[in-house]
Each structure stands twice: as structure tokens, then as C-alpha cells.
Amino acid sequence: MEKKKLVVANWKMNPKTLSEAQELASAVRQEAFEAEVVLCPPYPFIASLKSLGAQDCGWEQSGAYTGEVSPAQLKDLGCEYVILGHSERKKYFGETREMVNKKAQAAMQAGLTPVMCIGENIEQEMEIALVGTDPTRLVLVYEPEWAISTAEHFKEVTPEDCKIAVDAMRKQFEGPILYGGSVDSRNVARFFQRGGVQGVLVGSASLDAHEFIQLVKNAVLA
Ligand code: PGA
């Protein structure tokens, strides 16, 4: 049987309230999708939503690290996946590729699957990203910073551009590769059909229940 497509919803620092988050999650969950749908809400909502994913984690499992959340804590809440190395972490919070790699190793030790973002410098980034990790328990995302819908200098990635990047990643990695950057219900099918990916990472379009449900349906049909 073909493996299910993976759709990871990165809610970022949205929505503002738990009740809005509950409303969005329950609308999405009313649908029975033939895809693996992973909601990644902000930390404070994870327990109440019983979400499968988180947007980041620290690189220690416990201890004196004010403000951090550990992979062990996420695992204990029922998370299975954690997004790591998102370009916004790098841009606004000074995260380096070495830090991302430490987080990936810690996440794996806790039994989580890292969903690791790779930007424009594919080869160098992957070289650091994969150190000490088990590549059979890893998901990679091709997501150049400029393709994100909220990017200052936005530039579109076509499915053909995506395919070139995915082919380059394939030289070093056999597992699932996703595409992220302005994916919506209208363009999602093309990334599966011509972009060579097994899933997508979705930001803005995951915040509207109707749009996100349509996106997942179109992904399944692609
Ligand atoms: P976007 O965000 O879908 O709004 O472009 C994707 C992401 O940043 O992961």
C-alpha cells in the first residue's frame, strides 16, 4: 500500500486564544482524511488540542533552561512530530544549523520525528542537519525563506524549482521530503504531481479551516 501523504500545519504564533484554536482543530478533525495531518499549534495549546506536532523544542530533556520546552515533554503530551530549523527561528531568534542539529538529535532520543526545514543552501545545510541523526526517522522540508507567504521579498517556487531542489536532497536522503512555502488549496496538487514531494508544510493556509480542509482533500487526490 502506498504511504499516506503528510500534511503538516504550522500555525506559528496563531491563533490568539485557546477557544479559537479549539474551534479550528475540531473543524479540521471532523473530516476523515486519507492523509497524515499533523497540526502544530503554539506550545500552550498542545495539551488541550492533543496535537501530534509542535513547532520547535529544546536540545535537553529537562533541567535549568528557562523558557525552553523539551522533546521529552512534547512526547509525554502525545506529540509525534516536531518542526525544527524553520527560517523564522533563524531570522528572529538567532538559531544556527548546529543548534538545529542538536535539537534533532534530542528529539529523536525522545522518540519524536523531526520535520527539519532546509533552505536555499541545500548541500551545506543538509551536511550539518544529518550529523548523528537516524535518517530513517527523519522528515525533511524544502522551504526557502523567500517562498514563505509572509516573506518581505517574496518569490514564487514553481513545482519545477521544487523538483530540482528535491532531486538535490535525494542524493543524501531517502526518506520523506516535503515542500513548504505558500502552499494553498489551489497549488498543492502540483507539488505532488510535478514537485517530487511526499508531503507539504503549510503556514497561512492552515489557519482557515475551510481552506485547509480543501487543501488536504486536493493533496489526497493529487
Ligand atoms: P506559508 O508558511 O504557508 O504561510 O508560506 C509556511 C511556513 O513558513 O512553514
Task: Write up what this structure looks like.
The protein is 38% helix and 16% strand. The protein is an alpha/beta fold and 222 residues long. Strands 2-1-8-7-6-5-4-3 form an eight-stranded parallel sheet. α3 (71-76) links the parallel β3 and β4. The protein is globular and about 45 Å long. The structure holds 2-phosphoglycolic acid. 2-phosphoglycolic acid binds at residues 10, 143, 148-150, 180-183, 201-205.
The run of helices and strands is EHEHEHEHHEHEHEHEH
Helix content: 25-40%
Biggest sheet details: 8 strands, parallel
Strand content: 15-25%
Bound molecules: 2-phosphoglycolic acid
Task: State the separation between the terminal residues, measured CA to CA.
Answer: 16 Å
Q: Mind telling me the C-alpha Rg?
A: 16 Å
Q: Tally the beta strands.
A: 8
Structural class: alpha/beta
Gross morphology is globular
**Sheet with the most strands: spatial strand order:** 2-1-8-7-6-5-4-3
Question: Taking all residues together, what is the mean pLDDT?
Answer: 96
Uncertain residue segments: none
